[in-house]
């Protein structure tokens, strides 16, 4: 078992490198200047050029790639284009608590629903209720998560108006 885990960890190194190469070059294929996006539409061409130089965007692509990989290995993921130039690490950290809370609640809910439906299906083996549960669970597994999530938001937020369509309120704030 230790050998298996070790092999998997070692296999992760080239996979992460290939993914890193892919991400880096896909980002560089996107039209537009990242410096112009970060500075906004009111920035002058001189400001954009100065910012591009300070970010190293004027250097050759291979040098940018080596610097990018070395920064990623050190845990420096750069500045966010979408959160007003905040460090990506800070943005991820700020949203991690909410993500972890939602993940844990989702897993707990899935375990509870899975046990309940499994017991009901086992008690009613090979009858109509068992078949209905099998169809619903098969559909639930087959539907892409992003589509199911969107449909659930539309149903509970727009159709029933019992949940907000966006935002997060911690459980410590209460349900009301």
| Structural classification | mainly alpha
What value does the Rg take, in angstroms? 24 Å
- Number of helical segments? 7
Write down the secondary-structure element order.
HHHHHHH
Oligomer: single chain
The level of helicity is over 70%
Number of domains: 2
The major beta sheet can be summarized as:
none
Based on Cα principal axes, name the global outline.
extended
Number of strands: 0
* Strand residue content: under 5%
Low-confidence stretches: none
Compute the average pLDDT. 86
Distance between the ends: 49 Å
Secondary-structure blueprint of this entry?
Blueprint: H1 2-29, H2 34-39, H3 45-55, H4 61-73, H5 88-123, H6 128-142, H7 145-159
Helix pairs in contact: 5-6
């Amino acid at each position: 078992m230790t050998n298996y885990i070790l092999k998997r960890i070692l296999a992760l190194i080239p996979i992460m490198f290939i993914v890193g190469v892919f991400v880096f070059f896909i980002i560089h294929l996107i039209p537009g200047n990242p410096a112009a996006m970060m500075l906004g539409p009111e920035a002058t061409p001189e400001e954009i050029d100065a910012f591009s130089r300070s970010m190293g965007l004027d250097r050759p692509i291979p040098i940018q790639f080596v610097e990018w990989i070395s920064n990623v290995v050190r845990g420096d993921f750069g500045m966010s284009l979408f959160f007003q130039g905040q460090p990506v690490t800070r943005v991820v950290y700020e949203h991690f608590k909410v993500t972890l809370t939602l993940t844990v609640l989702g897993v707990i809910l899935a375990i509870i629903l899975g046990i309940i439906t499994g017991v009901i299906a086992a008690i009613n083996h090979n009858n109509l209720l068992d078949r209905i549960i099998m169809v619903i669970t098969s559909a639930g597994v087959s539907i892409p998560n992003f589509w199911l999530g969107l449909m659930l938001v539309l149903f509970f937020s727009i159709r029933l108006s019992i949940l907000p369509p966006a935002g997060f309120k911690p459980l410590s704030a209460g349900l009301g």
